Amino acid sequence: MGISFSQPFYLILLLLLPYFVYLWARSPRAFASWQQKAFLALRLLMVVLLVLALSGLELTFRHQERSVVYVADTSISMTGVGRETADWVNDSLAGLPADAAAGVVSVGQKAMVENPVGPRPDFQGFQSVTNPDYTDLAAGMGLARAMLPENRGKQIVLISDGRENRGDAIEQARLLKQQGIRLDVLPVSPEMGPEALVKSVSLPSHLRKGEYFDIQAVIEATASTKGTIRIMADNRILKEEPISLSKGDNRLVWSARAENPGLYTYRVELTAEGDTYKENNVGIGITQVSGTPKVLLVEGTAGESRALADALGMAQIESEVTDPRFIPATLAEMAGYSSIVLVNVSATEIPDQTMNSLETYVRDLGRGLVMVGGENSFGLGGYFKTPVEKALPVNMDIRGKGEIPSVGLVLVIDKSGSMGGTDYGIPKIELAKEAATRATEILDARDSLGVVAFDSSYKWVVETAPLKDKEKVEDSIGSIRAGGGTNIFPGLQEAYNSLVKAPVKVKHIILLTDGQSAYGGEYEGLLKNMKKDNVTLSTIAVGGDSDARLLAYLAESGQGRYYFTDDFESIPKIFTRETIMATRSYLVQEPFTPVRSGSSSLLPPGGLPPLFGYVATAPKSTAEIILSSHQGDPVLARWQYGLGRTAAWTSDVKGRWAGEWIKWHRFPEFWAKVVSWTLPQESPGDMIVSTGREDGRGWVSVEIPGESGQVHDISAKVISPNGSGQEVPLRAVGPGRYRESFATEQPGAYIVQVVQRTGEGIGRQKTAGLVMPYSPEFLFRPVSDDYFATLAAAGGGRVLDPEKDIAEIGRLPIPAVWGKIPLWTGLLAVATLMFPVDIAARRFNWNLRWAALLWQRFRSRAVAKNEAKGEHTSVLGAVKRQKKDREDFYRTRTGTPGPREAQHTTWAGSQEKDPGEAKGKVSVAGQQEKSPVSGEKNSEDSFTSKLLAAKKRSKK
Predict the structure, then answer these.
(1) How far is CA 373 from CA 588, 611, 650, 770, in A?
(2) From CA 554, how far away is CA 562, in angstroms rounded?
(3) What does pTM read for this prediction?
(4) Taking Cα atoms as reference points, which of 134, 172, 141 lies closest to residue 159?
(5) pLDDT above 60 for 929
(6) Which residues, 6+ apart, have CB-to-CB distance to 24 below 8 Å?
(7) What pLDDT score was predicted for residue 14?
């Protein structure tokens, strides 16, 4: 036990105590000496209490209990020892003292609590998901620190192989020691077999077309072995050869030639005998090849882009033709092209992830995108509310146009138990509900919508009615739940019945199912009635278990379209396309000559050929309309989207609508200008971009030769392998040099787009790349014993022996933890209560006669009580007691012994003379005689008479 002060500098105020004594000594004496001293003591005590309260007086004591948190490394490098680590933790927990509290933390890239700190935790092994691709021991120790209670001794036990690749564990250990926390370290050495890995791949970040360069690789082996090495450029094998590896680092070099412009990835793949891990057998490098730009033409139907490819070829623009199945799926693959042209491609043929990459390709990489029309493009192609629509200068929805007929649409959706199946992590019924919601968003208040859900029977989710409250309808759609069998006909019959009398011009049904109906139905009669009443039907078969024959027959006879898909993500796009096609007004097929909507360098001078059709769209507010139709719809529009540019041509590039344009002698020039406008405005010669990785982070460096006297606004857009982007402003680190680092959390390719911004917009931009082929956990860097010793010493602990120390954790010395009981609040309260007492003591009349009266009255009552009990007391004894009381009272009042003069007292009719009487006598009646000596009244006799009178009054 002890005392402490939270604000000890206030104790200096105690030096004021002599000043108070000085004031007391100088003050007039209005009271007796003993009273003056009491007042001084009271005031000094009050001042001392106030000073101690201000200084934060606390009573301190040491906590005897301890708390321990075990921090266990669960990263990939600890694979194979997880069970042993859990067993060791459990055995150590069992050896802790009964009053100890303990908790468990697991750590990979992040730290997670397995068990909070408490008595005897029930640890069942490591259950948390911590992303094992990284090791951040400092994060685990920091979380353990936050878990430790303040009123116990604190200890952390770290269990790891020491291969950290995030944070600084030693620095964190020093902080723990400063905070009074002991850190002990249990080293773990997982057994590992022979290992060979591609440690790094390096090549120039920028090349020119036709330039020769070297691919350098460092391959590390823990033992001599043999294997095979393969060099690939994107998906092409450049070289494959056998290889012999010696223990340690093996440096290999191959020569290659940059053939075509674009962003290329070069892979080095290793196959080694007796290798333990395959994940680290790949190394990747990225380079940008400058030269003639290359354009990718994606055609929905074979041969549909032939005229466009020929036109670009005549304009010396290199192009490559593919179909939607082979469109690049990743951003790194797309970056090899300067622009992508979608020629009448349906959205259902492009996966969602590829669409996301296309938007990022334009917005963040500064590349180009052109959409060419046709019956499978724009809104008719199902691009409504897709990432591609975001990037284009036109909207797919034209419902605001007054001439579009009203639509009655009924969605007949299978909600049987099979629709609850999960594909791509999403149940099919959820995708169906999203599709129905998208259809709702396309329609407006003039249209009618109904939703029928069926299993063994049917149920109206939304009864067919004008679409007044979209939010309510979407909530009803969201309530659909999967379960039951499959019976198609009743729901289809009800959908038809609801549309027959609907006050709309276009009546359409969309049927979606993933199974076969367990019951029959009079489909032929229903289809005849639908044809008679102008009700059309489209069907969607989902998966191989659907009744494809029946659904194809229903769509053909119902004058609609049949879709089969096993890509369940395309369901919403199909619904969107069907909803838009139901209006039949998105497709405009009549001859017209495009109208110039403004001056533009894209258009050659002179007249323009006619067109015979296009897909109606709506221009976005900031888009530039180059050509318009006779109905005011955009035919050619363009705009800037992020760092890139996009254009929309709503007619086609084949003989159906644009036959006269294909024959036009300026057709190649026109399309060369349109596509060239979307190409990135790079300046490869005056901005040098380099990338790399260091200390677990990526970095980008930019050098601008010849501009050392200027500071530019330069930033980099870093796009991660999952498509997310981060803006990284670059710092000026020297004349014409800029640099900054960024996080690289995910293995894969990182695309870096460097942009220089000026007051007028974007000045220069350039693309580079960086690859982290696998988790740094697979590097298996050796860790020396000195690391563990340094780490434990920094934390004030020691390196543990897994066998000897397993039961000693709870007995290791830990820094003292002191508890505190604040006393200042009580002191302040006492001083506050003393303050009015101090004031009252100096203001109060200290004549205590009233106290003597009360005392005599109390004594008289006591005597009367004794007499009532039969106790016999002589009159003489009573008089003597009375006399003694008078003397005591006199002594109290004067501070001197009582008088010994003779007094005459009459008590109950008797008189007794005091031998020393000389001053007078007092009668029982309270009459007072003058003293023969002084001639003054005797104050004691006066008091006695008053006392007797009071007794009489009380008896009455």
Answers:
(1) 12, 12, 4, 36
(2) 8
(3) 0.66
(4) 141
(5) no
(6) 36, 39, 40, 43
(7) 85
